[in-house]
Amino acid sequence: MVMDYDSQPSFANDKPETPESRTDNNEAKTSQNQNGQPLKSLDVSDLESKFIQKARKKIRLFDPEGIYQFKGSAIPYYQSFLHLISLLVSLYLIAYYFAVIIFSELEHLDGVGNTSDLTTIDKLFMVTLAALTVFKLKKLISVKITHYDVRYKLALAANGFNRIVINLVKFSIYFLALALFIIGLDHPNETILGAFDRLGNGVIADSLTFFSWIVTTLIFVKAFKHFGKE
Question: 207 φ, ψ to 5°?
Fold first, then answer.
């Protein structure tokens, strides 16, 4: 057998492998593997299943996040009734809370009439909170969420405003304790009545008031977080 050593192998039909072709081949193999493998079902134990079912049926009055997470679940009519009642109570308490702030700053002067000690910052924060509330309610009303749209929106609104009330109560208690503590440090011999008088006047009072408005705004923002979300 005679071999032709002068002949050279032909590479005319062999194309060099480029990085792009290697990437395409890898993607094709990955796609084939993904399509070829059967999907595995998620194993949920009986205990976990009962926990999820219990969470879905739970009565929520102060949990707007929970209402949003289970927005696909039907809300029973008796829960909607509780949501409606609690919403009306919360709206009344919030209105009463701000009415106390406004009217407590009114002072009657002979020959002048009623004057208000509310600062520009107080008025600015009140207007901001009112505008935020109206804006979020409009978003909640306009968005289409589930088949149980009305009951879901009622539940979310009730839980949001209920959360505002409970957080305002908590903050008021903590704020009062903090304010009295700070005044006690600066004036250790001050009586309790004198400390309360100092809460309405002075640099410390202005600083605490500004801090309270910041926290109040954050309370409203957090409560309205899921309003209007799909």
Answer: -65, -45
